Amino acid sequence: MTEARLVEECRDRLHTVLPELPRTIAGLRIALERLRGRPIRVVVGDPGDLALPTGLWLQLRHRDIVWVDRRTSPMHQIVIIGHEFGHMVCGHEPQPVDGKELTGPLPAFADQQLGLSAAHITAIMGRCSDLRSWLGRADCGSGEQEQEAEVTGRLIAEHLLAELGGGLSDLLGES
């Protein structure tokens, strides 16, 4: 599929799923909560020495968490959040990971940054090879899903950034 066709398909899907695209991250989060029928929490934190990707989507039993690396710029945070929300818009589902598989520093990170114990984590969208290596897995999300989320996330970010009236901090809002 050509890039132009992928962009067209992602744009069509985005407008079908969210015909009234919100102007802020908080508004988008609320719209996706309604769509998914579950709360979504956006957490911006510092992973310390962990080699995590700059963004993660964790799908728990009754809620979703989108984690974003605080060390990225506010504009990049918007792009990252757009990407993780893009997975939700595209209907992608994280690959199940039993919390008992988590080893090393990841359970402490989950507890400190996300308020979760390893036993509470029922799925992690681990498309990053570093995260997968902690889980002892080499299987990452499909390239097609990543492309769809990337394009959809870019469309979301472009929309949000075009709405910049009060600056980046207003756009990030209460997440």
Description:
With 175 residues, the chain is mainly alpha-helical. The protein has one domain (3-172). It has seven helices and three strands; from the N terminus they run H-H-E-E-E-H-H-H-H-H. It has helices spanning 3-17, 25-36, 74-89, 106-114, 129-134, 143-162, 168-172; strands spanning 40-45, 55-59, 64-69. It has a three-stranded mixed beta sheet, covered by helices on one side. Helix 2 (25-36) runs parallel beside helix 3 (74-89).
Explain briefly what this protein structure is.
This protein is mainly alpha-helical and 175 residues long. 47% of the residues lie in helices and 10% in strands.
Termini gap:
35 Å
Which H/E pattern describes the elements?
Answer: HHEEEHHHHH
Mean pLDDT: 77
Number of strands: 3
**Order of neighbouring strands in the sheet with most strands:** 1-3-2
Structural class: mainly alpha
Taking all Cα atoms into account, the compactness measure Rg is 16 Å
Tell me the strand percentage band: 5-15%
Shape: globular
Helicity range:
40-55%
Unreliable parts = 119-140
Whole-number tally of structural domains: 1
Query: Count of DSSP helices?
Result: 7
Biggest sheet features? 3 strands, mixed
